[in-house]
Design a protein that fits this description.
This protein is mainly α. The chain has helices spanning 10-25, 31-37, 42-70, 72-92, 96-110, 112-124, 127-141, 144-159, 161-182, 196-204, 207-237, 242-266, 272-295, 302-329, 338-363, 370-390.
């Protein structure tokens, strides 16, 4: 007889699913500074974000799979420990190559916060309530990328970029302690033997899984490509101080929060697939407007700064609408193998995130039009994929 599955406190779930994103964005205001101190190109420094998601993708697979065999709680604790070691490596990095390797280790450990937390949510909450909880967490989660630049910008401006990475070391200790004292085990007691190959075959022939995987990877790829490119736009072109850039990011992040809250409200009136389509249309429209603005020629004026922010606001609003519904629906038919399915699914969509952030790093050339053009092309594909989902509801 299986025991009753308990649901961890919402505050803890938000911390566990949010700290990987804070770790990703906290040093973005320092990117120009790090490039100067490590004598590296802007493209190479941006690649440290892509390396993060590469490590994240492999970590998602390993921790998700491990959580099925040793339990959710142990997998979370071991992942946080690896994350702490990677953060220490970032703090001690003497070169961009060392920083890349440390970022890979850091991300490998941090990924447990994403895959294991999502598994806990999917196995402990059912139906419409799960959609609502994912939307609620996504609204809070939308704020975490903004917290990173805010903290990182202030630390970099006051103490230097190394203080940013030292903060992550301290954060790993605090999160590990909170997890050890407050996270219950949610995995059922029934022993199961799960074949990774058989689960992989089920996922591979499920076109809805492919569609949701692409949409989650693409929306997150756009989000973190923005955080990779934004410091060079706002700090270098618009001459913002790192601290101001970090504070400024809160306003931009409100768009994702509004998108998640709007999604939660719309769920009472329409199916989640329709909201996903609406979100991708909003994102693509924002990218189109921003493309037109940047191609028309811009000077570093206050008016152009406001227009740039408005375009980004619309892009992230659509992302905020789409992401929670994609996450909630992606694995509804895999309740029997959630840990392994989540691991394989996460591996796939985080590889897409890594690929898309790599694309932004490769294309970076100092032009303001590069980012919106890149976003526009991806947005059009997302709309087409979203339409295919509406025609294949199950």
């Amino acid at each position: 007889m299986n025991r009753k599955i308990s649901t961890p406190a919402l505050w803890l779930l938000i911390i566990l699913v949010g700290f990987p994103q804070i770790s990703e964005t906290i040093y973005t205001p320092s990117l120009p500074d790090i490039a100067n101190h490590l004598h590296a190109s802007s493209n190479a420094i941006q690649m440290t974000l892509s390396i993060y998601f590469l490590g994240f993708s492999f970590g998602v697979f390993c921790w998700g799979r491990l959580s099925d065999s040793i339990g959710r709680r142990p997998a979370m604790l071991w992942g946080i420990a690896v994350y702490g070691l990677g953060s220490l490596g970032c703090y001690l990095s003497p070169s961009v190559e060392w920083l890349m390797a440390s970022r890979f280790i850091q991300a490998f450990g941090a990924s447990t916060g994403s895959v294991v937390t999502q598994t806990i949510l999917r196995e402990s909450i059912d139906g419409a309530k799960r959609h609502a909880v994912f939307a609620q967490i996504s609204a809070a989660l939308a704020f975490t990328p903004a917290i990173g630049p805010l903290i990182g910008g202030w630390l970099d401006q006051s103490l230097g970029y190394q203080a940013v990475f030292f903060t992550l070391v301290v954060m790993s200790i605090a999160i590990g302690a909170a997890t050890f004292t407050s996270l219950p085990e949610t995995k059922g007691t029934a022993a199961t033997s799960i074949s990774t190959l058989s689960v992989a075959k089920r996922l591979m022939v499920d076109r809805r899984v492919w569609a949701y995987g692409f949409l989650i990877g693409a929306t997150n790829g756009l989000l973190f490509s923005y955080y990779a490119e934004a410091p060079f736009i706002f700090i270098e072109f618009f001459s913002m101080k790192p601290g101001m850039f970090g504070f400024f990011g809160i306003f931009v992040a409100l768009s994702s929060i509004f998108g998640a809250l709007l999604s939660k409200k719309l769920l009472r009136k329409m199916p989640a697939e329709k909201i996903i389509l609406m979100g991708t249309l909003v994102t693509t429209a924002g990218a189109l407007c921003l493309t037109g603005l940047t191609l028309s020629g811009m000077s570093p004026s206050v008016l152009n700064l406001i227009l740039m922010v408005m375009g980004i606001f619309v892009i992230l609003l659509g992302i905020g609408m789409a992401i929670p519904n994609c996450l909630s629906l992606a694995l509804v038919h895999y309740q029997d193998v959630l840990g392994t399915a989540g691991a394989l699914f996460g591996l796939g969509y985080y590889l897409i995130v890594s690929l898309m952030t790599s694309g932004m790093s490769y294309l970076h050339n100092g032009s303001l039009a590069t980012m919106p053009l890149y976003f526009l092309g991806i947005g059009i594909i997302m709309v087409l994929v979203s339409k295919s989902l509406r025609g294949a509801r199950s």
